[in-house]
Amino acid sequence: MPRENNRIYEKTLASNDNLEKNVNFFCEIGKVKNTEYSTNNWIRAVELFRAKNNYEKKLEEISETKVLDSQLAQYLAAMKQQNGNEYSISSIKAAVSAIYCYLNQNSVISNCNLYDNKIYKQFWQVYSGKIKYLTDLGYGEKNGSNGLSNEEVQNILNHSLMDGSTPQSLLKKVFFYNAILLGLRGGEHFI
Predict the structure, then answer these.
(1) pLDDT tens track of the chain, all 191 residues?
(2) Mind telling me which InterPro entries this protein's record contains (predicted)?
(3) Which one of 11, 74, 109, 154 has the fewest beta carbons within 10 angstroms of its own beta carbon?
(4) What is the reported pTM?
């Protein structure tokens, strides 16, 4: 469903009177609010770390890649949640992506590619070490679902809604058997 401001803009889109306005409109529409919010949170966390360590310039004002590499490596090594626990591996990856996007748009270093491990060598060494450390601690484990025990399956099959006395309860029972035997999953796979 189109957004309201899209419909309003469609009326003026046909005219090429103000091309810059068209460009700005589509740049704004393309922004994802949650991504911007997440990026701002991570940059705020980096700046708090930098303030505690008495760094003078803002992150985007650092003009030397070696200084940026060192400070980001120090942040990555020290980063923890507010409650003192370690971040999950996916959170660290999200932080690196957010910092990359921010620096790519705002840094005085032209073409600031944080993903270049030849330029930001120390940062990537710390990153690899931290990921390995957290993996060894179990922070990289995905939370899998536990299967049903035989007793739980029996309890479900013996429930009054699964007794097979009505067409609907019979359908539920057949679906449950199929789910167990064929490994069917719920959610978006079934309408």
Answers:
(1) 455 555 555 555 555 667 888 888 888 888 888 888 999 999 999 999 999 999 988 989 999 999 999 999 999 999 999 898 999 899 999 999 999 999 998 889 888 889 998 999 999 999 999 999 999 888 776 666 667 788 988 888 888 888 888 999 899 888 888 888 887 665 555 54
(2) MAVS
(3) 11
(4) 0.65
CA distance 161 to 171: 10
SS3 115: coil
The domain total for the chain is 3
Nearest 5°: CA angle at 156, between 152 and 161? Answer: 165
Question: What tokens appear for 51 in the block?
Answer: 């303030």
Q: What share of the chain is helix, strand, coil (3-state, %, to 5)?
A: 65, 0, 35
Same domain assignment for residues 80 and 9: no
Of the candidates 113, 49, 118, the one whose C-alpha atom is nearest the C-alpha of residue 77 is 49
Q: Is residue 143 part of a domain?
A: no
